[in-house]
Specification:
By secondary structure, the protein is of the alpha/beta class. The chain has five helices and seven strands, in the order βαββαβαββαβα.
């Protein structure tokens, strides 16, 4: 039984939902999983864990600064054991941008860090207009209009392929 840490950064809570699904899948494979938010515990101790997964959401084309800081502080520990990274973003809803090698945000992120994750995934996120502030709702609707996405300000649009999330959970279990 491996002890697996999933460290995550979420903007609106959907990345946490993905982490919880990963936790379910991994624990069904007889491993123990701890979820830790970088907002709550930026200096989490990685030493007790056999495997580490980092997950982060995108807002306006960028991961949050705490994701970069965590990776920079923990690069050697991350590299010393099996590890993985996943990104959650709305552009991944498009089939041609829904894989690690084709997702522009993940590719850009990997160029900006020195850590090279052992396993990668990208998951399409969720747009919940009612959760956003007036300005975020306006900007995200404009971005969706440009990219031919949903713009109804009363809508909730979940693009996540949960089967893909579960498959990644199995990959993490086996790494």
């Amino acid at each position: 039984m491996a002890r697996i840490l999933i460290v995550y950064s979420t903007t609106d809570g959907h990345t946490l939902e993905i982490c919880q699904r990963l936790q379910q899948v991994i624990e069904q494979q007889a491993h123990s999983v701890k979820l830790v938010s970088l907002n709550d515990e930026p200096d989490v101790n990685l030493t007790p864990f056999d495997k580490i997964v980092v997950g982060a959401s995108i807002r306006y084309g960028k991961h949050k600064p705490e994701v970069y800081e965590f990776i920079k502080r923990n690069k050697l520990k991350l590299e010393s054991r099996p590890n993985a990274f996943f990104s959650v973003n709305a552009v991944a809803r498009k089939p041609e941008k829904g894989q690690p090698e084709t997702n522009p945000y993940l590719k850009k992120f990997l160029r900006q860090i020195t850590w090279q994750p052992g396993k990668l995934a990208v998951f399409a996120g969720k747009i919940d207009y009612q959760k956003y502030s007036f300005w975020d709702r306006l900007i995200i609707r404009f971005i969706m209009w440009i990219t031919k996405g949903p713009t109804d300000p009363t809508g909730v649009y979940e693009f996540t392929n949960w089967e893909q999330v579960e498959e990644f959970g199995l990959v993490v279990s086996e790494m």
